Amino acid sequence: MQSGIFAMSEPELRWYAIHTRSRHEKVVAEQLWQKQIECFLPLREVISRWKDRRKKVQFPLFPGYLFAHVLIQDRRLDILKVPSAVRIIGFDGEPAPIPNEQIQAVKRLVFGTLPYDPYPYIVEGDRVEIIRGSLAGLRGILIEKKGTYRFILSVDLIRQAVACEVDACDVEKIR
After folding, report:
1. What are the distances in angstroms from CA 159 to CA 105, 138, 141?
2. CA-CA distance, 162 to 151, in Å (whole number)?
3. Residues 55, 158: Cα–Cα separation, whole Å
4. What gap in Å lies between CA 42 and CA 116, rounded to an integer?
5. Interatomic CA distance for residues 107 and 103, integer angstroms
6. Domains in the chain, please, with CATH?
7. Vertex 38, ends 30 and 86: CA angle to 5°?
8. Is 88 in a helix, a strand, or coil?
9. Which end of the chain is less crowded, N or C, counting CB atoms within 10 A of the terminal residue's CB?
10. SS3 call for 104
11. Which helix (H) or strand (E) holds 171?
């Protein structure tokens, strides 16, 4: 039997999504920074209107989430001890890292000069409801055809359907 030295790979810092209590993203980010945990909370600027004034306010781009860059085995408990941190997103109880390229892409967008807005994460085949426009309130299925989104309104009893083009931002996934 041959003996040899097996090189163990060094653990590396990875990005993880942290789910927070509603409207506590900034509080969790601040508490993580106090624990010297690098985090990223992408924000977007929105003009809020009151009766007497308008003001620019920053809201999380992904409500309820922020990202931490850590060695998860070393800092998992530190993250979970933050009062408003609900959980670290993962599968079967194990935190799942987010590819670095995805975080870097969001950073480029947020720190760039192009305007951006949140966009619903809806996939082909999802049941959706139109939330804006003359068809607001209609429910159906979203499909993509030749690069455009189509809303399918079905009449189940006669097994017939009709389709129309819609902007994906005008539909909301039915929960």
Report:
1. 43, 18, 14
2. 8
3. 52
4. 11
5. 6
6. 14-111 (3.30.70.940), 127-173 (2.30.30)
7. 60
8. strand
9. N
10. helix
11. strand 171-173
pLDDT digits (tens, 9 = 90+) for 107-141: 988 898 877 777 667 777 888 888 888 888 888 88
If one counts every other C-beta atom within 10 angstroms of the C-beta of residue 155, the result is 9
**Of 126, 105, 114, 99, nearest to 42 (Cα)?**
105
What pLDDT, in 10s, does the model give residues 47-70?
888 888 899 999 998 899 999 999
Which region, left, alpha or beta, applies to residue 107 given φ > 0 means left and ψ of -120 to 50 means alpha?
alpha
Residue with tokens 């993250």: 79
**Could you tell me if 20 and 39 are in contact, meaning their C-beta atoms sit under 8 angstroms apart?**
no
